[in-house]
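Training component of the fellowship. As part of building independent skills, the fellow (R.M.) carried out the full modelling exercise for a liganded target. The chosen ligand was adenosine-5'-triphosphate. The inputs are recorded below so that the supervisory panel can assess the work.
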Amino acid sequence: MSGVAASPPAAGSLLSTRGLSLHFGGVVAADAIDFDLMPGERLAVVGQNGAGKTTFINICTGYLRPSAGQVYFDGVNVTGQSPRAITRRGIGRSFQLPQVFTEHSVRQCLLIAASAVHPRLRLWRPLAQSAAAAEVDATLALLQLQPRANDLAGQLPEGQRKLLDVAMALMLRPKLMVMDEPTSGVSSDEKHALMAVLMQALDERQVTCIFVEHDIDIVRRYATRLAAWIAGKVAADGAPEAVLRDPLVRRHIVGE
Ligand SMILES: Nc1ncnc2c1ncn2[C@@H]1O[C@H](COP(=O)(O)OP(=O)(O)OP(=O)(O)O)[C@@H](O)[C@H]1O
Ligand SMILES: [Mg+2]
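Fellow's submitted model of the complex:
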């Protein structure tokens, strides 16, 4: 411990970290990260493979415990809480590899997602059933998945599997959606269409978002703010065009 008290989260921030650190053996995956995200932001996170982007997300969403530091969500210290507890507080999450129930239909996946976090959702009661069904239909429409409602999740092409992963998270009405590489594994032709659907859905529901992205065109088009990760640190953070002009970012990330 340094003995110096960490500063509190910025006033009105949705997500904040203070001194967030995690080492894996000799690898510093998160290096004393101080970070504030304000409601309404669309933050893109860029960085080379192994820079610590997923580690940061995993700590903020409870999948990893930091060795030091704090995570605040909506003004509450949530450091070390379980992924489920953090989900209930209002952070939705999608994954580098979509976590869908491949043996279930798209519609069933959404129902399972809702009931997994709200165990007292009494889905056998007719009223609860119709409310849940209405929410499923609204979410399917929001992500343009209605034509696939009865298909097995495991049979979806990658782009729609990504949409389903986000749809499952949106069933829980999060305030913040954290998406780890929402366009990875999708052809470059399809990436823009996929992001357009995702961003419109988040706009409609007024959900703030963080997304990890390697494609700089996508970042330019959809982010209101950009943070560049280098070796477990936020090396540059601000307006996307300004961050993309940063010499460190150009050398290490944009590849110029
Ligand atoms: N569970 C773990 N055990 C050991 N080392 C890990 C673990 N998770 C991540 N690391 C290491 O921590 C560093 C950061 O990894 P992380 O997955 O956060 O990177 P990333 O920026 O998401 O990379 P990518 O673009 O490849 O997804 C890497 O060196 C990685 O090998
Ligand atoms: Mg990653």
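The panel noted the following from the submitted structure. DSSP finds nine helices and ten strands in the chain. The pocket of magnesium ion (ligand 2) is lined by residues 53-54, 96, 180 (CB under 6 Å).
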